């Protein structure tokens, strides 16, 4: 079954992670959290690629991973009306915030052009293939990219020099990724991502603007719209526990510490509240008070 990067909370109480507000009916749930990071190359379309072919950056993945093992371990925590739906989920990844970028562009001008910026993913859908230690994942997402591009040799639509380009565009991305499980909590992945944006024409009069849209083939060839990205990532998974709104309390949960009664010492007599005066310690009835 497909996996969502962001999903409705009613699907499963386990989906919420760090940063979500705690409701009055919330209960603690432990889920695995995936921290993935690795290098990524950047190949930008149009004049930027002609000016400098390869740029550099980092690819990030921060998400709670809800798989069948997690669902089965918390079966009694899922509200009854959602259990059938949860049983059909192969894997679901929930990102804690849309403000955490998926890609960071940190590429000084080693040749002629440098780029700095980020791409954010808003909502996405992934389809995993395979259940062994090696799996293929195909995905698509809605994204937005903000980037500052500077160059000393970049040419615009009319052949003019462009020193700075402010790129801000929405788009979609397509990803093919191979995951290899090295250990229980350690994975490695590699793949390719194509980010396809609304095209932006590069020309001097709007060189620092993001309002230009190509109107013909000539302008399209002088536009920036595609970011190709080969990447390699290392993933580490660790458990986190959060209070999840809507989650049912675990069975046989001990009462809170403040409600527990401390064990009574059999050698000590605790007087009723109405007793006054000094209290003398007494022995249990089973022991004689003294020699006969």
Helix/strand layout:
Layout: E1 3-4, E2 27-44, H1 47-51, E3 55-67, H2 68-73, H3 83-86, E4 91-94, E5 103-107, E6 113-129, E7 134-151, E8 164-183, E9 186-201, H4 217-221, E10 223-244
Antiparallel strand pairs: 1-6, 2-3, 2-10, 3-4, 3-5, 5-6, 6-7, 7-8, 8-9, 9-10
Q: Can you characterise this structure?
A:
Mean pLDDT is 77; it is low at 1-24. 28% of the residues are buried. The chain has an eight-stranded antiparallel beta barrel. By secondary structure, the chain is mostly beta strands. It contains four helices and ten strands; from the N terminus they run E-E-H-E-H-H-E-E-E-E-E-E-H-E. The longest helix is centred in the first third of the chain and has 6 residues, at 68-73. It has helices spanning 47-51, 68-73, 83-86, 217-221; strands spanning 3-4, 27-44, 55-67, 91-94, 103-107, 113-129, 134-151, 164-183, 186-201, 223-244.
Tag the structure with descriptive keywords.
single chain, 292 residues, eight-stranded antiparallel β-barrel, disordered N terminus
> What's the order of the H and E elements?
EEHEHHEEEEEEHE
Low-confidence stretches: 1-24
Instruction: Output the number of helix runs.
Output: 4
Our estimate of the beta-strand percent is over 45%
- Largest sheet data: 8 strands, antiparallel, barrel
Distance linking N and C termini: 82 Å
What is the overall pLDDT average?
Answer: 77
Radius of gyration: 30 Å
Q: Name the structural class.
A: mainly beta
The helix fraction, in percent, is: under 10%
Query: How does the overall form come out from the CA principal axes?
Result: elongated
Biggest sheet strand line-up? 2-3-5-6-7-8-9-10
Query: What is the total tally of β strands?
Result: 10
